[in-house]
Specification:
Layout lengths: L17 H9 L3 H9 L3 H10 L2 H10 L2 H8 L8 H7 L3 H10 L2 H8 L4 H10 L2 H11 L6 H4 L6 E3 L4 H11 L8 E5 L5 E6 H6 L6 H4 L7 E2 L4 H11 L3 E5 L5 E6 H19 L12 H28 L1 H6 L7 H24 L8 H31 L2 H31 L9 H22 L1 H4 L1
Parallel strand pairs: 1-2, 4-5
Antiparallel strand pairs: 2-3, 5-6
Helix pairs in contact: 5-7, 7-9, 8-10, 15-16, 17-22, 19-21, 19-22, 20-21, 21-22
Length: 461
């Protein structure tokens, strides 16, 4: 939704002029800057702030009120490490007011990135009621339903008449994160129903909330993993989900904007793990920090690579008798790794979207193995024909083709089964990264290739 003071531009161009805004600020043309800046959408305001240097940011704090800064801080997306430095440049009282005006869940996300000393200081300066709400949310793990929920929602007693409920909604609306979903509770604050704003508006004035609410409520437990919450909200097309404790008391709600952030975060995490890094590299990361993120997997893969080297060394006599075998090592290991990585990506996606259940696991593994067999056979047939035409060695062609078929079949099976096993063991399946699967398949494919070549060496020589 757009506020009446926000400009709308229906194209892909930037809706603000950064040079103009910088000039207005630096030339102390405060009224003109405020007019230009506050006419922008909150997202563009946050983008401008993110793209600005320390001097401009400090001037923004000087000319905007905490309420105005809080509006675009709700949209802010900067690296976690930057928040500590950012709040060092802000007056503590001013910073506490900004956090007070933000949505509680977004304020908590920021405060989780601050040092304990700064966190305590800001909480001390806050309004007692706001500090109490934020403290309650800070207790929950960041990756749980409690960690992403907000306590700013609309709830009504189930025994309340519709006429009175409309007044209550109007009173609660300014502080609520969403007004389109309303939750019905009993005297013990236990969640017993849900209704939409439309249900309330269209109901008869003499009706009661319990008459128009739905008792079928999709909810989450406060300790539930955020990825599971996101999956359920996607499945049920919810714009808000209530969060309950173990006694069904309503603690807060999770809104769709937070779930979109969760899905983006989980996708980035899975992508980085599939690439074999601990986290997606930020563009402003130092050389040392970038290397630190990537080194753990690379060191592991180095040791796994030594196994491949040892296998090749153990078949030194085979290679010395038929040196041409070495020419096809990259093809067999590469195709095995590629097919495994493809299968891995499909499996991780199916697991993350909940499309795999216990009954379908065997069927999916069998399908992937069949796909690998068929793909391997077609690729092997092409390779056999090329070897016969170029090298005129039909038996070598058969060994290479058979090895490629088996290696791609096994590689595809490994790529699909390992994530399923990891998921069963409650380990993130994305940990079975592409480089890891590729290296495992290198080892397996070399054993297959040289095992067959050694077994049929008399025919090759």
């Amino acid at each position: 939704m757009y506020n009446e003071n926000e400009s709308v531009k229906l194209d892909d161009e930037t809706v603000y002029d950064q040079e103009l805004l910088d000039k207005l600020l630096l030339n102390n043309e405060i009224d003109e800057f405020r007019t230009e800046f506050l006419s922008m959408h909150k997202y563009e305001q946050s983008e401008y702030f993110e793209d600005s240097g320390d001097e401009i940011r400090q001037r923004i704090f000087e000319v905007l009120s905490p309420e105005e800064v809080a509006d675009f801080f709700d949209q802010l997306e900067i690296d976690e490490e930057e928040y500590e430095d950012l709040f060092d440049t802000m007056n503590a009282t001013y910073a506490s007011k900004v956090l007070e005006e933000m949505s509680y869940d977004n304020a908590v996300d920021i405060m989780n990135q601050l040092s304990k000393q700064k966190l305590v200081s800001l909480l001390t300066l806050m309004n007692k009621e706001d500090a109490k709400e934020i403290k309650a949310l800070l207790h929950y793990d960041e990756d749980t339903a409690g960690g992403i929920m907000t306590t700013e929602y609309i709830s009504l007693k189930a025994t309340m008449p519709v006429k009175e409920a409309l007044i209550q909604v109007k009173d609660q609306a300014p502080d609520a994160e969403t007004i389109y979903v309303i939750f019905a509770i009993n005297d013990d604050k236990k969640l017993i129903g849900v209704l939409s704003l439309r249900d309330l508006i269209t109901a008869e004035n003499d009706a009661y909330i319990e008459d128009i609410m739905s008792e079928r409520v999709i909810s989450s437990n406060v300790a539930e993993d955020q990825e599971d919450v996101a999956q359920r909200m996607r499945d049920y097309d919810l714009i808000a989900m209530p969060v309950l404790d173990y006694q069904d008391h309503l603690l807060g709600i999770i809104t769709i904007d937070d779930i979109l952030d969760v899905m983006d975060e989980e996708a980035s995490e899975d992508y980085s793990r599939l690439a074999g890094v601990s986290d997606v590299d930020a563009t402003n990361d130092s050389v040392i920090k970038t290397a630190t993120k990537r080194l753990p997997w690379l060191i592991i893969l180095t040791f796994l690579g030594m196994i491949t080297a040892s296998i090749l060394g153990s078949f030194e006599s085979t290679l010395s008798q038929v040196a041409l075998l070495a020419a096809f090592i990259p093809i067999i290991s590469g195709m095995s790794g590629n097919s495994g990585t493809q299968s891995l990506a499909v499996s991780v996606r199916n697991i993350s979207t909940g499309e795999i259940d216990e009954k379908s696991k065997f069927k999916i593994a069998l399908r992937e193995a069949g796909s690998g067999l068929l793909s391997g056979f077609v690729c092997a047939l092409i390779l056999v024909l090329i070897i016969i035409i170029i090298y005129r060695q039909p038996f070598l062609a058969i060994i290479v083709g058979l090895s490629l078929t088996i290696a791609m079949t096994v590689g595809t099976l490994v790529g699909s089964v390992i994530p399923l096993i990891m998921n069963k063991l409650k380990i993130d399946p994305a940990v079975a990264s592409g480089p890891f699967i590729t290296t495992i398949n290198d080892i397996v494919s070399m054993l297959i290739y040289f095992g067959l070549a050694t077994s049929f060496m008399t025919y090759l020589t």
